[in-house]
Amino acid sequence: MSDDTASFDLLVNIQSYADDELKALAEALEAEEHEISKTRRLIHAKLDILRAEMVRRLRDKHQAGKSLFSEGDVEKLSAILSSRGLVPEEE
Fold this sequence. Notes:
This protein is mainly alpha-helical. It has one domain (3-81). It is built from three helices and no strands. The radius of gyration is 25 Å and the shape is elongated. The two termini are 46 Å apart. 0% of the residues are buried.
């Protein structure tokens, strides 16, 4: 049984729980929500750092006079934007 199914099963017979059991369940779910929220914030922070590094590298490439695009990027983007999908790469 998955954690989601087990959590849902706890709520199926919620009317049969005593007040203390409901309180304990609410506290456990609040703690779980707090951990999920913390994990989400950490993931967002990592994404922000990764994006900042990608921007820095692109800026450095541009300042060095290097191309910001790899070979075939423009063709792939054109295919995506024109709804043709990706053009298979030649071997």
